[in-house]
Amino acid sequence: MKHEQTRYRPVMLSHGVQCTGSEYLINRPGYLNSDGTYLEWDENNNLINGSETITNTLGFTLASRGYDVWLINFRGTYYSLNHTRLDVSDPEFWRFSMDEMIQIDLPSMIDYILYQTNHSSLSYIGHSQANVLMLKPGQLVFQNMKNVRSVLSTICSNRMMRWICYHVYDLAVGYQTSDINVDRFPVHIYNIPSGASNDNAIHHMQTWKKGHVSHYDYGVEKNLKFYNQSEPPIYDVTKINSTNIAFFQSSFDRISSIEGNIQLKQELTKPLLEDYVIDRKDFDHMSFVWSKKTGI
């Protein structure tokens, strides 16, 4: 049975590695009224109306502006541990990398949203890994992620430990305390890290080492078996034919470099709708979703 088309255009918010869809909801405390009005407290504890002013928490801001917001959670994250036949204790559950997300998860999610909303297209906003996954239309790292998240949040709530936690978190994910609301740090660290597989981590390291995004490298013998060639095939971005793609990047993002983005842009055959570079030293990787000035 075909669904009736929803009134508002669907927009998918896609998260980075070790994150969940919650990264788009936790920048500032606030709430969404039943009438769709979003109220948010700013850094000075003033309550602002998100329907009149652009606020800093993207998920709620878009919803208050009339978008049909869909938050997704890729396999292996805290909110996506169900499986029709495998348990999380089964090593087979964790045998996935970006390949499975690109080839199976993301297309399935998009198809589901389009079916539920009866729209023919949607808008996609990605952060970090989520943008890599759009290049084509093991065992758990932390086996008990709920306990790990709880312990980290508790430790880093201690005033004596907090600055140590800040610096470790900054090195890991690009977390500039001068640009991010540090009063939200316990919330941030409770939500990230949120789960991934070893194979996915290895795939990211392979991508960094090779300088391009290719399929998972199993080694020559298994590559020949799976791909019929000794090296894994590269994801061919020249086949991307959309002219509605916008890049937002930071000159000081230590996780996703400007050089890598330049290389990708050179390989694309279609012009970008927008190519915006933020040239601020305090705007790092997580600033895209948690900056004090996200809504400006």
From TrEMBL:
Q: Which InterPro entries match?
A: AB_hydrolase_fold
PANTHER family with a match to the protein in the record: LYSOSOMAL ACID LIPASE-RELATED
- The molecule here is called Uncharacterized protein
The species this protein was found in: Euroglyphus maynei
